[in-house]
């Protein structure tokens, strides 16, 4: 029974990891950009929510009303002003520019909010849970997180394959030259993709901040979790990414049960094992 | 009448080479003319010069953009502590052994991370460094998460006087710093360097020309891992103390190094040298700013990448093709000057 | 006589330091079918890419309906009324047949072409409208590419290497449909390796060699030998 509980909790945490991953995956899919600052943007969104709550007294979930559009706007602007200029110039510029961005965000957060860890107070929902069976309690927040992950993956999947916007994303990704002759301005398409990625980032950031403490230097760790979920699940498959997040979450939960020092290590080892045995991921594009 | 000839050396490059040799001689004599603080500063610069040159070889010339080189810095440090603590050997002997151990470890690591393409490779190397950090934190024989220290007795074995120990460590740093630059320079002038240039210009074409790209990349990765571990061993010999968080710090051993190379000029021999010097100069003036200093470095690196991807050296050398340490060939016309 | 629909004057184009077009002049009247012939590397595709803004490193003037197109970015060219059917089709592999067509009509100018009209022209595409464009035969892919170009209801359709890599019977089918495609006053520039077929349908032709225009005029105004000499530069 204890193990069932551990695995179920791991699955629920996996939802959060999938949320870290989908934004990363989306950007890579549309413009082959790996955003090293992705994790730091998640943490920055958490701090943005923290600030909004301080100013307005809104509930953390309600703060999304402000945080989501601001994040999207920031992503749109960041892409137009900075990231677009690094594309088409080989692998180094986008990588190093987002790397620099990551350091800037971390230290900006440190300067502004100090190194103390914070948490968003969501009230009673934080600690309430229901009992699925004896010994297996499901917390509302982990459940909500997982539900959000499923909803986000489903929504992105739908948007990608059944909307004109998704059609533009795929066309620009397929052939950025001919796409222009369809009247698509690649730069604004990229900016839209980054804005959308930032929406997912904001959701992930707020849910993370309700679940656990956060500090300015947590970003790289979230980037790594997201990245591992993407690779485990297989590039270009959003449902695979969700599965990847779940596998990572379960691995960490099982590792932590064996020895607290093994929580992160177990996740990394599962990732490396999958990379060794099945480098294309468990569910590569085209299978699912 | 042969009016063209192919050459590498220019008047400037011969001068630069002579000047470099002279500089190394002068620096080697530093224990006789410098204070302890000077030795420490130059030693630290040499350590960063080595890390920067090695990372530049990896990312700038071989296209392997690693953000996980701290794995080898920390690994080298831990190997030195293991050899000194458990075998009781002289720490100076432990430095090359640490490099050898890292070379062996880096081969299976490369087999794994090379499966990731381009930018995902970068994050993959980071995961490996995290695994190293968490793994060494689990080793209670090396102090686990809180780390361990080198006993004074071991340091006495190395040299009896404190001044002599300082000098030995300094010379080791100088050897690694100057040696790394020389290693990169000579490697790039070799056939491997020619192959690397071909790969950088066009990977598909060079592969069809029969250049064994995976083998060359693997060889460079392993060499850089070994040299980085030697630098790491020296760093923690100097610090006398090692703990996982400091040993595998991404900020200290990778972030700063990347900024130095990018600002100085990635993909050039001169870039890491300029970047290292500039970094230490800036640190003198701005280190008090703490985190703002890092934000400035980050912004500078972004600006360089967007405006002059070849860095400060690229701006200096410009289109004139100026080169202090030429690794390519140039065609010159004899007789009339163009 | 009214001003031509498209007038190109002294067009020069560059790839890096290499010059690909030298002082090319070209005019195209409304409803005209101009065949562009020449050996590989003559600059035909480059000329089409200049017209659509995909090659940006160019000098000269491209006057289209009274407007200079040089400063117009590639993504606004379709809205102006020029559509390209690129060499090698270049369909979007992750889009279905219908999605490819719909994207071609993203910039919807008024006109007779619509999804239904394209399906009437190429009934096979209606059957395959849900399938990924990569699963189609070469001829079917070319139909999608043509349809995608027509969906924006252009004034000028640029057809780059219409028959390249297609089976003879498929080429014949497509050429049989060409009058239907080029009807309604649509102007066409047809780049074609199959010289005799191109000259058979063209109102006028232009023969290029090494980035320069060597010969131009009505197909029946020149002898076979004269055209061959211009083609090979002999």
Automatic annotation (TrEMBL), chain A:
Chain segments annotated as transmembrane:
6-29, 36-55, 61-83, 90-110, 138-161, 189-210, 230-250, 262-281
Keyword annotations from UniProtKB, A to Z:
Amino-acid transport, Cell membrane, Membrane, Transmembrane, Transmembrane helix, Transport
Q: How does it sit in the membrane?
A: Multi-pass membrane protein
Main location per the UniProt record: membrane
Q: State one Pfam family annotation.
A: BPD_transp_2
Q: Where in the cell is it found?
A: Cell membrane
- Keyword Chaperone part of the UniProt annotation: no
Q: Which CDD domains does this UniProt record tie to the protein?
A: TM_PBP1_LivH_like
State the InterPro entries in the record. Answer: ABC_transp_permease, BCAA_transport_permease
Q: Which family does it belong to?
A: Belongs to the binding-protein-dependent transport system permease family. LivHM subfamily.
- The protein depicted here goes by the name Branched-chain amino acid ABC transporter permease
Species: Shinella pollutisoli
TrEMBL record, chain B:
The membrane topology of this protein is:
Multi-pass membrane protein
Superkingdom of this entry's organism? Bacteria
Cellular localization per UniProt: Cell membrane
A Pfam family of this chain:
BPD_transp_2
User: Which residue spans traverse the membrane?
Assistant: 12-33, 45-64, 119-136, 168-188, 218-237, 257-282, 294-316
Record keywords, A-Z: Cell membrane, Membrane, Transmembrane, Transmembrane helix
Q: Would I find Membrane among this entry's keywords?
A: yes
In which broad location class does this protein mainly occur, judging by the first location in its UniProt entry? membrane
The protein's matches in InterPro entries, at most eight in alphabetical order, are given as: ABC_transp_permease (IPR001851), LivM-like (IPR043428)
Entry-linked PANTHER family: ABC TRANSPORTER ATP-BINDING PROTEIN, HIGH-AFFINITY BRANCHED-CHAIN AMINO ACID TRANSPORT SYSTEM PERMEASE
The entry's protein name is Branched-chain amino acid ABC transporter permease
Please give the organism. Answer: Shinella pollutisoli
Q: From which lineage does this chain's organism come?
A: Bacteria, Pseudomonadati, Pseudomonadota, Alphaproteobacteria, Hyphomicrobiales
UniProtKB/TrEMBL annotation, chain C:
Q: Which domain of life is it from?
A: Bacteria
Query: Which segments constitute the ABC transporter domain?
Result: 6-233
Question: Is ATP-binding among this UniProt entry's keywords?
Answer: yes
Which InterPro entries does this entry report, sorted A to Z?
A: AAA+_ATPase, ABC_transporter-like_ATP-bd, ABC_transporter-like_CS, BCAA_Transport_ATP-bd_LivF, P-loop_NTPase
Q: Which Gene3D superfamilies match?
A: P-loop containing nucleotide triphosphate hydrolases
| Keyword terms, alphabetized | Amino-acid transport, ATP-binding, Nucleotide-binding, Transport
Molecular-function GO terms, alphabetical: ATP binding
In the UniProt record, does the keyword Membrane occur? Answer: no
Which protein family is it in? Belongs to the ABC transporter superfamily.
Annotated protein name in UniProt: ABC transporter ATP-binding protein
């Amino acid at each position: 029974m204890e193990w069932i509980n551990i695995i179920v909790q791991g699955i629920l945490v996996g939802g959060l990891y999938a949320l870290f991953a989908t934004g990363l995956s989306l950007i890579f899919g549309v413009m082959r950009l790996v955003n090293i600052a992705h994790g730091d943007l998640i943490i920055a969104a958490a701090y943005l929510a923290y600030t909004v709550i301080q100013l307005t007294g809104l509930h953390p979930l309600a703060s999304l009303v402000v945080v989501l559009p601001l994040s999207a706007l920031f992503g749109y602007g960041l892409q137009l002003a900075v990231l677009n200029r690094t594309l088409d110039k080989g692998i180094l510029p986008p990588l190093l520019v987002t790397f620099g961005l990551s350091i800037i965000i971390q230290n900006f957060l440190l300067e502004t909010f100090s190194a103390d860890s914070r948490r968003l107070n969501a009230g009673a929902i934080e600690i309430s849970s229901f009992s699925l069976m004896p010994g297996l309690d499901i917390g509302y927040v982990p459940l909500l997180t997982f539900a959000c992950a499923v909803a986000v993956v489903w929504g992105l999947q739908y948007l990608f394959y059944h909307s004109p916007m998704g059609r533009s994303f795929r066309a620009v990704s397929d052939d950025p030259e001919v796409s222009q002759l369809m009247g698509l301005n690649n730069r604004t398409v990229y900016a839209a993709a980054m804005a959308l990625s930032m929406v997912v980032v904001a959701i992930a950031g707020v849910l993370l901040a309700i679940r656990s403490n956060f500090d300015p230097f947590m970003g790289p760790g979230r980037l790594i979790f997201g990245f591992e979920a993407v690779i485990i699940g297989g590039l270009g498959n959003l449902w695979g990414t969700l599965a990847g997040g779940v596998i990572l979450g379960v691995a960490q939960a099982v590792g932590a049960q064996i020895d607290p020092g093994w929580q992160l290590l177990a996740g990394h080892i599962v990732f490396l094992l999958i990379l060794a045995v099945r480098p294309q991921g468990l569910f590569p594009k085209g299978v699912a | 009448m042969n009016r063209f000839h192919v050459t590498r050396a220019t008047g400037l490059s011969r001068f630069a080479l002579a000047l470099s040799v002279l500089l190394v001689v002068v620096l080697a004599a530093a224990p006789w003319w410098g204070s302890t603080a000077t030795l420490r500063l130059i030693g630290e610069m040499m350590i960063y010069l080595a890390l920067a040159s090695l990372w530049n070889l990896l990312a700038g010339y071989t296209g392997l953009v690693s953000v996980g080189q701290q794995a080898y810095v920390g690994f080298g440090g831990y190997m030195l502590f293991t050899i000194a603590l458990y075998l009781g050997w002289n720490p100076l002997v432990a430095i090359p052994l640490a490099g050898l151990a890292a070379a062996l470890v880096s081969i299976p690591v490369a087999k794994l991370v090379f499966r990731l393409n381009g930018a995902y490779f970068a994050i993959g190397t980071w995961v490996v460094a995290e695994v190293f950090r968490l793994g060494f934190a689990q080793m209670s024989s090396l102090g686990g998460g809180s780390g361990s220290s080198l006993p004074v007795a071991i340091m006495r074995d190395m040299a009896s006087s404190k001044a002599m120990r300082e000098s030995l460590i300094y010379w080791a740093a100088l050897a690694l710093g100057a040696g790394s630059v020389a290693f990169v320079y000579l490697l790039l002038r070799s056939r491997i360097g020619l192959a690397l240039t071909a790969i950088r210009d066009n990977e598909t074409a060079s592969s069809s020309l029969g250049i064994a790209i995976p083998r060359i990349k693997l060889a460079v990765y392993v060499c850089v891992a070994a040299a980085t571990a030697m630098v790491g061993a020296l760093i923690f010999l100097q610090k006398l103390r090692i703990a996982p968080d400091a040993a595998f710090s991404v900020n200290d051993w990778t972030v700063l190094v990347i900024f130095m190379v990018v600002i100085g000029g990635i993909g050039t021999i001169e870039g890491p040298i300029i970047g290292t010097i500039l970094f230490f100069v800036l640190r003198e003036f701005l280190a008090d700013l703490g985190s703002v200093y890092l934000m400035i470095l980050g912004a500078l690196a972004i600006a360089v990448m967007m405006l002059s991807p070849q860095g400060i050296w690229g701006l200096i050398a410009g289109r004139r093709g100026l080169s202090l340490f030429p690794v390519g060939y140039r065609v010159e016309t004899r007789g009339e000057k163009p | 006589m009214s001003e031509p629909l498209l007038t190109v004057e002294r067009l020069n184009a560059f790839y890096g330091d290499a010059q690909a077009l030298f002082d090319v002049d070209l005019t195209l009247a409304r409803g005209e079918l101009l065949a562009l012939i020449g050996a590989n590397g003559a600059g035909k595709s480059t000329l089409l890419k200049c017209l659509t803004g995909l090659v940006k490193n160019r000098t000269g003037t491209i006057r289209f309906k009274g407007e200079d197109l040089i400063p117009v970015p590639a993504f606004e060219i379709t809205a102006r009324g020029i559509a390209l059917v690129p060499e090698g089709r270049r369909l979007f592999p992750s889009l279905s047949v219908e999605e490819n067509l719909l994207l071609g009509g993203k910039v919807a100018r008024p006109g007779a072409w619509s999804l239904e009209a394209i399906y009437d022209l190429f009934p096979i595409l209606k059957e395959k409208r849900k399938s990924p464009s990569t699963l189609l035969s070469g001829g079917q892919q070319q139909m999608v590419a043509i349809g995608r170009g027509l969906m924006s209801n252009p004034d000028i359709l640029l057809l780059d290497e219409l028959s390249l890599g297609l089976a003879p019977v498929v080429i014949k089918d497509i050429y049989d449909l060409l009058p239907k495609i080029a009807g309604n006053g649509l102007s066409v520039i047809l780049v074609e390796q199959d010289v005799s077929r191109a000259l058979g349908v063209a109102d006028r032709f232009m023969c290029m060699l090494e980035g320069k225009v060597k010969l131009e005029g009505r197909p029946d105004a020149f002898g076979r030998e004269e055209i061959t000499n211009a083609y090979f530069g002999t």
